[in-house]
């Protein structure tokens, strides 16, 4: 058994203290009681965090019942540094500068060109990051950009920063992380976009999912992220829980993967638009936001397809996920949440008809954090790593 060194123990205690402060304003004494650490040890580590700018004293709290001095309160300094966050597909790319708790400070979205040589496309994104940093500097934001997170559709090797495969890109085994790191001189972390969206919910929960959480991201495609014991599950080769191409209707429409009746081909926003166009060609050129506006104006065709087609098939797929994982919560993310509570209600209704009594206890809800989901997910990857023992020192130097 490997012995834990004093330095390792100090780092663990430091991270425990930092995460405790992140979860809410508190005093040194409260940290000591919560973590079972001595007050001198807590004070020494807190002083170190204050010196680094990660923690700030915010004033004095109330006295205890025993009286004495009012405790000095501590808070996490989320804007001490910024995270660069990138999301891209075959249509556009998004870049943001985000604080350590996921608040977007600067943002841009542009059309993208996918070259056969991945480096030419990545060069465009790198220049976009530099432009956004320059804009931040011009507005007086001088914090360092400490790392960059990238969220992208497809199979990725998160450890090596390699995009293995994506149906939206012509690249195979593209070492995007290494290439961008050389260009920007900061650590780069690459992640599948569905798992990146899952990190958003984890960040906003402060680690309150004690058992299992499932996130289903519904946009151009469908992605699924699963959290077990506060860890995102990836599988042996990074392709776990890829349910978008599970067959749920053998006679269903042809999917871009070549099979018929895949969940994504029935329940994604792309599938929603295609079914609408089959009903009436006038919907073919409309963006999803425009279609949602028609739904809110009581367009009967839109309502029927949204609730009785897309909502139905989303419910069928989600019921399968619940029966497999039996999570505390399943959160639906992405553009689809713009449709509102009637669609959420329809999905839950379909699910409840198809799951066991135990699984019915799982809470299903639309996310409250779907705006700019993918780019915020890319930032949440870095935030999660920042608060981890494994990656903290790599990011925060």
From TrEMBL:
What are the leading ranks of the lineage? Bacteria, Bacillati, Bacillota, Bacilli, Bacillales
User: Residue ranges of the HTH marR-type domain?
Assistant: 24-57
Does Ribonucleoprotein count among this protein's keywords?
A: no
Q: Output this protein's name.
A: ROK family transcriptional regulator
In terms of PANTHER family, this protein maps to: BIFUNCTIONAL UDP-N-ACETYLGLUCOSAMINE 2-EPIMERASE_N-ACETYLMANNOSAMINE KINASE (PTHR18964:SF149), ROK (REPRESSOR, ORF, KINASE) FAMILY (PTHR18964)
Described purpose of this protein according to its UniProt entry: Transcriptional repressor of xylose-utilizing enzymes.
Keyword terms: Carbohydrate metabolism, DNA-binding, Xylose metabolism
What family does the entry list?
Belongs to the ROK (NagC/XylR) family.
Is the keyword DNA-binding assigned to this protein? yes
